Amino acid sequence: PAYKRTKSPAGEERVLFYSKEFGDWDVSKGAQANESDILLYGGELEHHSVPLFAKNWHLGADLTKRGANLSDDQYMPVTASLKCADGKVYKAPAVNPAVQKQGPILTDEEIEAKYKLVFDKYGRRPEPNPTVNFSFVIMLVMVGLAIVLAIPYMLVRKRSAQKGYQPVATSFAQVIQQSKKKQSGHVH
Length: 188
Prior knowledge:
With 188 residues, the chain is of the alpha+beta class. 37% of the residues lie in helices and 15% in strands. The chain is elongated and about 115 Å long.
């Protein structure tokens, strides 16, 4: 909900609106609600459905004499109260229904315990198991040995099936020499 100030001079429009993010009522410059240009706020985290019941109002420090040396985003507490333009007087409810819907307010220790629980459950990844890493290394060594031993055996079987038994080159130099002989036509 938002309330526009009536009969505002040109360029001095003001809007009173509810901020869901902070659970408070804000007064901003302009004809539209603007979170980045707040002049006054009240009832922070009180979640009142009507601004009349909001307490603890704060005025932008740059708008007060005492806050002249503070930055634009700081606010000073002020005494303020709101009244309806039509003169009606409303009575504050005994229990704020918005706060009742949210549940009880937690203490700092309870909030810290909840954050710790969530972080412990979802935030950390388990440490790698050293036995798995060692098993993986053993598996890689075994696969490497199988490849090194299987390739010469397969070459021997292939040649013996085609042309009878021929010795297989055992060194890289012999493989290159045999390849050159095949290219020049000395070996069939």
